[in-house]
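Contributing new records

If you add data, match the layout below exactly. Sequence lines come first and carry their own label; structure lines follow with theirs. Keep one chain per record. Anything else will be rejected by the validation script.
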Amino acid sequence: MTKDAHISDLEKELQETKKQLAFYKDRCKKSESNERRLFHEVYQYKELIHSSTALITFLLGPDFVIDFANDAIRKVWGKGDQVTGKPLLEVLPELKGKEIEDYLNFVYQTGETFEAFEEPVEHIIDGEKVLYYFDFTYQAQYDLNGELVGIGVFAQDVTERAILNQKIKKNEKEFRELVNLMPHKISVANSLGETIFYNQAWLDYVGKSMNQFLDTNWTEVVHPDHTAEIEHIFLDFLPKGEDFKIELKLKSKTGDYLWHLCQVTAIKDEHGQVNSWISSSTEIQQLKEEEEKQEAFLKLVSHELKTPVTSIKGYIQLIQSMTGKENEQNKTLKPYLKRVEDQVERLIHLISEMLDLSRIEQNELELNKTKFDLNRLVEEAVEDICYTNQEVRINIHHEDEFQVLADRNRIEQVMLNFLTNAIKYSPENKHIDIRIFKRDKNSVGVKIKDHGLGISRKDRQHIFRRFFRVEGKNQDTYSGFGIGLYLSNEIIERHNGKIFVKSKVGEGSEFIFTLPLNQN
């Protein structure tokens, strides 16, 4: 080999060596970069764990040596950085012999994850015991070879929530104990109307355990006659969150259906959203039986009185015709005959109301619907009232002319009843305003407004009940049996209308009834 060839080979080897050096130099740079990136990622990860509000620590070996503890858990322990490298039970000797130690041993020995919720744990901080409640997870930690090396602890301080839940549970327990002492049948339902609790009175009535009764469909307890009404409540009242009451028959453990008054109240949060419903059912079977006896008696008396009273009226009219000639004796007699006739008219009106009451209870009240001018009916009713009450001033405001398809006599009965009440309960101010108006595109309204005594809020919710009379110092001053408004309400409801009442004590009342418009 020549000297030049040898030099050429050396130069080739040198170039190859330079290439290899460049390659390894580049790999070293990349390795350094990866190491820096890995170090940075580990640093960020540790910082994230340290700054987390979750309580996190890693324990190594069977002695549970603290390998890492973030700021949040050291704060709960009341310890500083010096805990690292020390056994957990040395740092927190108050945990020795407690369930926490058992949980850790279980995870380390089995490798299974352990979870607990609202677990009470006492820590000693500055010499004083402090009770915490934690939700936590103990999870086995493994090395690259799959060997179990320790336990990861992940926890949340839920002390405030746990104490609040304890108070709620205590209140629930006290509530259950209280309602179980009550004779009324109390139940609690969730916001959707699904019952979640019955008191002991309910369980005794149906002869079932709590779980048995909760699994029972309501149709098995409520009489079939009330099914449609209950379904209407579920569709109407529950979505609106409105309180309601209903009378219905409920099946007892003997199979008998007994009448109950059920009152349901919505429990709402500060935003007006329904959280739950509370229902109170009171047996009214005896009251219903007494009402039936009373209705039967009134029906009998009304029928028995109608014929003789009608005869008395006829004789009075005959006597009045016989005293047509003007003389001193007749002048003296006529006022007394007129008073007798008025009292007989009152008695006939009362008997008619009693008979109507009986017809309604027996669902025998028939409506003879015809098309008529509602405005004219109101005018005629006012003329009749003013004829016998000449001191009354009644103004009628017609917003339009309205035709309705209804029982003219029954609507007139309602109108006269409202006018009579307006006069009766306005001893000082005999001024009455009537407004006939279109309430919406499908109905017409008639408003009768007086300036009399008014009705209290307490009494307003009862005025359409049978035989209800407003209580007060002057209650005996006003005649009547308290069935006029009940009849009026029944008549309007049977026409698919509604009655509304506005009233303020000392300022007067407004009664509004509505009827469907005759669209044709």
